[in-house]
Amino acid sequence: MYxxxxxxxAALGLFLSxxxxxxxxxxxxxxxxxxxxxxxLGARIGFxxxxxxxxxxxxxxIPQFWLGGLSWPGALxxxxxxxxxxxxxxxxxxxxxxxxYLPLLGLIATGIWLAGWGTGTxxxxxxxxxxxxxxxxxxxxxxxxxxxxxxxxxxxxLWITGVILFPLKRTRKPxxxxxxxxxxxxxxxxxISFFRVNPAPVLWGLRWESWIxxxxxxxxxxxxxxxxxIEKNENSNP
Length: 238
Hints:
Helix content: 55-70%
Distance between the termini: 56 Å
Number of helices: 9
Radius of gyration: 19 Å
Number of domains: 1
Largest sheet: 2 strands, antiparallel
Strand order of the largest sheet: 1-2
Order of helices and strands: HHHHHHEEHHEEH
Number of strands: 4
């Protein structure tokens, strides 16, 4: 179920990126397949490193990503590296490329939340309230819990839709929408992590995904500002 949900969302996201594109539709489709592959590879590598002790004694399971076990920070890093690779090889504008793949980014984020619900990898506290959803926890017990995966999927879809459709000022350069998209998706993950109760490493009282979300948000904003400054300096030079 994990693989089916994630694959379906990735395929739909790539289709939307292709459909919304104009002159570069075929290019976005072809390059998008490579970006998805590198993103998947990064997600698996990130998960393996995070659980290196286990995989040192179960090395045969390392390539078996269909069993579950993907890291969203690894997927994001893989996607960014693949995007930069496409930019360097085909000389396509990096900002426009990133903006073009926003539907793919948003639907993969939605898929991760829904897949996490199906596999019980991220859940909230137990509740008897009407809004509770049935979730199987890490110990195999099924109970009604806060709908954190549904909330994450809904907010991720809503945020990316708003970033794509909201009319920005003409002064905004290509890449601004993708920066907003990534910052929003990662911030949503970070906020929801405060309400998750599934077992996870803790550092200074916060879950690991809370710290990672904060670090990624800061890095994305810094990288965007640095790239903008470099482009500005290049354009100002004769």
